[in-house]
Amino acid sequence: MPDPLNPLRIVRVVAWGLIAALSAVMLYVTLSSEKPAGVAIGGPFTLTAMDGKRLNTAEVMRGRPYGVFFGFTHCPDICPTAMWELSEILRKSGPMAKDFRVFFVTVDPERDTPELLSSYISAFDNRIIGMSGTAEEIAAVARAHRAFYRKVPTPSGYTMDHTATIYLFDGKAQLWGTFDATESEENRLKKLARLLGK
Amino acid sequence: MFTTIGRMAAISVAALCLTATAHAHATFDIAEATQDSSFKGVVKIGHGCEGSPTHTVIISVPEGVIGVKPMPKSGWKLKTTTGAYARTYDYFGRPMSEGVKEIVWSDGQLKDSEYDEFVFSSRISGAVPTGPLHFPVTQLCEKGEHRWSEVAAPGVDPHSLKSPAPAVRIKAKQVAQAGGHGSHGTQTQAQHQHHAAPTASGLILHLPWTRATPPGAKVAGGFMTIENKTGTADRLIGGSFEVANVFEVHEMAMEGGVMKMRALPKGLEVPAGGKAELKPGGYHVMFIDLKRQLKEGEKLKGELVFEKAGKIPVEYIVRPIGSTSGGHAH
């Protein structure tokens, strides 16, 4: 019988609560797509890009679809794997995805400086753009995306819990769908092709 | 590829058993084979454990021995464990990347006063280096056990070992080898290092691996399967890695789209007679504050610390970024 006060269990319950909430919101967005006043997830944002300059996603994308991922570089498994898989999808999608971009928003701005993001992301497809900023800026962008993250202490420092879903936005910067971490590559390729209208 | 590991206690127990029967190690009937040719392995079991009858015999198949087929024995249950090889081998023109890695004959009855043989057919790949090739054997008795798993370190006389792993001397094929030598050389190196790893006792580390890191990354995860062949549970409580300042044992889980990672303050249990699997998306050892980038193809050393078994050396193969298993590139 699990201990009801076990912190992981609490985290799990809270996480499932968030998932339920996110699903409900997405369902609402889907159902109310006729009404422009529906609850918006995401939307354009401005953060500091890897070259240290401020970057507004709407100015970069100019009406083209894009993706957003929340991650951090002190992440041993899911982040490099997700970025590598994404790189493969971009590569396999060929020229149709040439103007597609994915913004990698760090949830750990304390450690992920633009320089570090730049060197880290150089290992992956150059359509992935690292974005950092102040803790408040990151919190605002994550809130707009209903993305969850939080700092968790470890014996040697801390790590981050974070939403590992890749958000997909259409040309109007409206949430169009997601790449789920467990989804097959084939599915993702089809999704991306549909998003890009090919 | 098995790294078999050692513990002084087990060696001393084996030493006690062996005082009376030092000549009767588990050995191969014909202890010679040739690269790139078939090999029929006959392991001879000459006695029980201090008088106690044998009920199980387990043979671990080293990397490079492919297409293994065990011979069933009347009165014994036969089971095999298959897994990915460290690379793909050519098996009569057909690529082969996985196969039998362990053979278990169990539920048998072999008295201390009797003798029996345990047989398998196999092929020695051309990638196996010349010299001794070890097949660790575990013999479980009604009371007690023998772990024939010691491998002589360089410069040590194998005859001085108390509980040596049965070995087959691999000879070079008598054909001039042109081309392809480079890749064979690499494999030979890997083989050599793995077989030279320290030995004896009940924990086996299967295929430890990690991933190449993006430049600037300060962390990496280490993965493997830890198998506990002893009758007591053990616990992975710490360790070290040659190019990291900090080492922790972690658990990771995706819960409804949220990635969570936790240090395991009490370490990770390796159940008696069971396994602990460290793999992407689950348990892993975490290398923190990396001193440099990890490059694909490297082999990096470290140490695992267990509550009971103590310190055990380990060597990780660095797989490409995006690899999901240690067996093959993505």
Task: Give a topology summary.
The complex is a heterodimer of chains A (198) and B (330).
Chain A lengths: L6 H25 L14 E4 L4 E3 H5 L4 E6 L6 H16 L7 E6 L7 H8 L6 E5 L2 H10 L4 E6 L2 E7 L2 E4 L5 E5 L5 H11 L3
Parallel strand pairs in A: 3-4, 4-5
Antiparallel strand pairs in A: 1-2, 1-5, 3-8, 6-7, 8-9
Helix pairs in contact in A: 3-6
Chain B lengths: L1 E3 L3 H11 L8 E2 L3 E3 L2 E9 L8 E7 L4 E6 L6 E15 L2 E13 L9 E9 L6 E4 L2 E5 L3 E4 L18 E5 L9 H15 L7 E9 L7 E10 L5 E8 L2 E12 L2 E6 L4 E3 L4 E4 L4 E8 L8 E8 L3 E10 L11
Parallel strand pairs in B: 3-13, 14-23
Antiparallel strand pairs in B: 1-14, 2-4, 4-9, 5-8, 5-11, 6-9, 7-8, 10-13, 11-12, 14-15, 15-20, 15-21, 16-19, 16-22, 17-18, 17-21, 22-23
Description:
The complex is a heterodimer of chains A (198) and B (330). In chain A, 38% of the residues lie in helices and 23% in strands. Chain A is of the alpha+beta class. Chain A is globular, with a radius of gyration of 17 Å. The model of chain A is unreliable at 31-37 (pLDDT under 50). Chain B is mostly beta strands. Chain B folds into 2 domains: 4-16 and 190-319, Immunoglobulin-like; 35-152 and 164-170, Immunoglobulin-like. Chain B has 2 helices and 23 strands. The longest helix of chain B has 15 residues, at 181-195. The A-B interface holds A 8, 11-12, 15-16, 18-19, 22, 73-78, 80-81, 83-85, 87-88, 111, 115-116, 119-124, 148, 152, 154-157, 159, 161-165, 180-182 and B 211, 213-221, 246, 248, 250, 252, 254-263, 265, 280-281, 284, 286-289, 321-322, 324, 330. Strand 7 of chain A pairs antiparallel with strand 18 of chain B, so a sheet runs across the interface.
